[in-house]
Each structure stands twice: as structure tokens, then as C-alpha cells.
Amino acid sequence: MKHIQTVIIGAGQAGLAMSKCLSERSVAHVVIERGEIANSWATERWDSLKLLTPNWQSRLPGHCYTGTDPDGYMSMPEINDYLRDYAHAIAAPVEDRTNVNCVTVEGFGYRVSTDCGDWICDHVIFANGACGQAYVPALAEELPQHLTQLTPQSYKSPDQIPHGGVLVVGASASGTQIAAKLLASGHDVMLSAGAHIRVPRSHRGRDIQWWMDRTGVLDTHISEVDDPLRARKVPSLQLVGDANLPFLDLNLLQDRGATVTGRLVGLQNGVAQFSGSLANHCVLSDLKMRRLLGSFDVWAEAQGLEGLPAAQNHGPTVVPTHPPLLLDLAKGRIKTVIWATGYRPDFSFARLPIFDQKGALRHKDGVVGPGLYVLGLPFQIRRKSALIDGVGQDAEDMANHLVRHQRTKAA
Amino acid sequence: MTIQTEIKASNGVNTEALMGAREAFAQAPEAAAFTFRSTCSWVTGTQSRNDINGFFGLGQEHTRHENFTISSDHPTVFAAADTAPTPPEIVLSALASCLTGGVASVAQHRGIQLNSVKAHVAGDVDVRGILGMDPDIRNGFGSVRVRFEIDADASEDDIRALVAQSQKRSAVFDLLTNPTNVHVDLA
Predict the structure, then answer these.
(1) Measured between alpha carbons, how far is A378 from A311 in angstroms, rounded to an integer?
(2) pTM (predicted TM-score)
(3) Which residue in B2, B157, B167 is closest to A287 by CB distance?
(4) What is the per-residue pLDDT across A28-60, written as a single tens digit (0 to 9) for each?
(5) Nearest partner of A118 among A139, A129, A104, judged by Cα
(6) Where do the structural domains in chain B lie, given as residue ranges?
């Protein structure tokens, strides 16, 4: 059993950023990592994935991209190297290959029990990521046995997919990317789309993320939004880290041969039922896109930015006239279902009264309880909280809070 | 960037009360469980009458000051008395009312003054389904179309957004677009 001021769980961008911020404040800490640094990026993503944000947008406390392609998008091996370099540069005290079994209350602090012994500490930071588990809806259990079921964590490449059709459920970044990849390798793809957000990769000659960053959209604080609960559940943008693909939207996927239909809402006797609300979701998505791009243009005008090419009119999402409402999964074309239905963080190691009635972690801007913090959740403090580029600012806030809390306790 | 909109619109919707209800239900989710009811009596032929009054909600039974009735029948082309709209037409009208009320509520919340709203609803039915002539033809609507005519003090995209948001939050739109378990039993 060892004593230390602070235990950080997870050595990804959030844990490492926090480590840097604590080192700067002379707070003794250890970073516990179940695998190796950047484990999720290395082991729980598909092979062709590239970051959705350009290389320049990977700023961490005291670290930034210095390579030759600031506008490129990092592959998984590249983000791995980038985070390893960061860990090395900041001399992060990482204890790798160490599993956290549970976190419990111990005196006025906490006990973090691992398979390599226990730590007693004043503070714990959950930095193990917003995407700990791929979320799969309950009806997945009732699917016919012969179907192969995958999630974005178990899907690696089209080679893995059995011969036959694939139903991809979910049309955000993961679902649309996987659908495009499967179509390119000749698979018959049906895509079930609920709420989604269509955006172009670039607008008026600049990457969409450049606009999001410069206009301050990503800096929006959670206290500025009408409905924080909804803001934290906004799906990921339909983006892929590929500058040559202007859109990864439902139009592109339909052009490439996908059948698009509404949200999967039920399953009866092996027959999947889809919502008839696809048209409205497409309208909402087009409206949101136009509003976002329009706000960028207003900003550019106000800034007096010159030399930008004119804005393109992207036209509406083309909705199929009769999207299928029923699909027999017991027999017929579909052999594989891929659940691209979002992710949930995994804090199941915490034996503490910190969850709400739906099992979600309760926190106020990342402060879970006395000496207990979380980092890296969507819109936790700012819209960019879950981005590599955003977690640093949250880590600074948390570190300041932690130091203040420590003083209050001493006094 | 925060934009404070001064709400000047007057569409006759008390959105403050609705927002208050949201906060109350967040504290006491059990109060949000409502049960709506209708009692239907056969009159004669295909004619029937629904009496609607009480409902359950906010943890208790509610009685209105007035009884409402909705009658239904079939048209003369089906050799019926045609004393009232058909049940599918009542469903269409329910959808139109639900979306129209939604447009008004969303407009109020967004500070948009409505001058007039009209919803035209149409539903296509192949009646060979209900006559049991072809198992591949469904009984219900093959498709439903709604066309809104809205005059409001807002841009076209803002008006489109009202219509889209009203669908997103509509009970009847949800009922028509998503499956529902229905249990029918003898008393």
C-alpha cells in the first residue's frame, strides 16, 4: 500500500494533460494506465481511422504539433506517437499495465485498488475517457443468432465482415465512416440514421475546425447554453479526417450505393422496425448546418476577413421517397449489424455514490465530489472538453480547483 | 458568445409555465407520468362516439369542466351514414393539431410572432388492405404528407426550423412514425 496526493486514472490526452498541470503545481501524483500510453487509440479504434481534427488542433498544456503537415489528420499510430512523445516530454509518472479494480472512500480521501497494489490518496481524477464502452441498445440481445454484431471498438476493417449485407446503425462520425469504408470494399450497406449533424470538411477554403476554433464556437461554456443535458448529448459531426472528401453525408453514402432509412426503433420476430422520421432529421441537420456556416460568415464579415472564396450552396440532403420501415433480419440480405450508436464512459470501478438514477456520473463542471474529478467528457465545461485540443484548458481548471481544495482542507 | 433575445412575440402560449414544468419534472419525474383516456360507445352502423374528460397526471386524477365528444363514421361511398369523419381522418387531424400546437409553442419560446398557420394533411390508404384483399397491402396509411402555410415575422429558415422542431417534440408524430405496443382486451 502506497500513499500519494493524487491518482490519475488513464494515460491518454486527458490524464497526461492533468499530469502536466499537477507537476507545474508541485502536486505529487501517479498516472495509472491499464495498457500502455494512449491505449484506447491503439487498441479500440478501427485501422483506417484518422483524427477528425487537423494536426495543428492537438494543443496540450506545454505541447503542440511541430511536424510538416499542420493541416493533415493523424492516423492512429501517429496520435499514439504524439501522446507518447508528450508523456516523455513532461516526464509523466505513468504506471502502465496496471488495472484499477476499484475506487473507494478511505478516511478523508480515497483508496485506489489495482492489480499491482493499492494507493491511498487525497484526490482521484477519472481521465479514462468518454468512449470507454461502445453503447449498444438493449434490443441487440434479441437479434437473430446468426448475425455477426460489431461495434466501432470491435470493428477493425472490412476484411472482418462476412459476405453479405451490413446494417450500420447510427449516422454520426463512426457510422458514416464505417459505412463508406464498407461500400468502397463492395459490401451492401443499409444505414439507419436518427439525429445527425451534416457539415462540410471545409468552408470557404478553411477546414471546418478552423472556423469552429477561431469563431469561439468550441470555447462556448456550458453555462452559456440553454439546455446543458442536450448539449452534452449532441452527436459527433459527420466528418472524416480526409481533406479530399468534401462531405461524408447521407447524400454521398446514397450515391455510393447505401440504402438510408430512419432510426432503428424496434424489433419484432426478427423484423427490424425503423422510424418514419428520417425526412425531419435530414431537415433539422440541413438547417443546423446552414445556421452554423451562416454564423461563420457573419463572424468573417465582422472580422473584416478578406480574400475568402464565396460560400457554396450545398443543397439539401436527398431523402429517399420510401425509406424501408421494416427489414427482416431473420432471413434476407443482412448478415452483420454494426452498432455505431455512441459511446459511454466506464466508471464502473468507482464504488462511490456518484451516479444518478440513469447510471450517469454526476458532476458540476468536472467536480464529482471532494477531491474527486473527471476529465474529457463531452461539453463537460466547454464545447471542446472532449477534444484533444480542449482537455488541456479543463485540466488547468481542475488543477487549480484541486490546489484550492487542498488549501481549504489544510486550513 | 451569448445572445439575449427579448421575447416580444404573443402567440398565446405560456412557455414560462412549460419551462417551469420541465424543472419540476426533473425534480419529481414520477409526476410526469400521465394517462389519457377516451370512452367510445357504439351508436349504430359504423357510427360511434367518444367521450373524453378525465385524465391522470401530476400524481392525481383530473376532471375537466366540460365533456368533450369526438364522433366518427364512414362515408356514403362505403354504404354508411356519413355522420362524422372516419377514424383515419381523426388521426390526420390529431397529427395536424399536434404539429400546429407545437409550432405555436416553439415560436413563442423562440420569440417569433405568428400571424397565421395552416396545416394541410393528407394520408394515402389503399382500402384493399382493410377489406382483406391482399396481405401485402397494409391497413394504415402508406404515407402521410403535411404541408404548412405559415405567415410569421421570421426568416424562411427560422420558419422551417419551427416546423422541424415541432415534429421532433410531437406526440402524434412519434405515434405515427414509431411502433407502439397496443393491448386490447375484454372488460
Answers:
(1) 30
(2) 0.92
(3) B157
(4) 999 999 999 999 999 999 999 999 999 999 999
(5) A104
(6) 21-74, 85-177
Q: Which of 3.30.300.20, 3.40.50.300, 3.40.50.720, 3.40.50.450 is the CATH number of B85-177?
A: 3.30.300.20
Contacts of A257 (CB under 8 A, 6+ apart): A183, A188, A189
Residue B180 in contact with partner chain A when CB distance is under 8 A: no
Q: Quick one: pLDDT band at residue B1, thresholds 50, 70, 90?
A: very low
Which own/partner pairs from B19-27 qualify as long-range (CB within 8 Å, at least 24 positions apart)? B19/B109
Tally C-beta pairs within 8 A across A and B: 40
Interface of A with B (CB under 8 A): 216, 220, 224, 262, 265-266, 268, 273, 275-277, 280, 283-284, 287, 290-291, 322
Q: What are the structural domains of chain A? A: 2-132+345-410 (3.50.50.60), 143-339 (3.50.50.60)
Residue for grid cell 488541456: A392
- According to DSSP, the β-strands at B35-36 and B55-57 are antiparallel
Sign of CA dihedral A83, A86, A90, A96: positive
List pLDDT tens digits, range A199-233. Answer: 999 999 999 999 999 999 999 999 999 889 899 99
Interface check for B157 against chain A (CB to CB < 8 A): the answer is yes
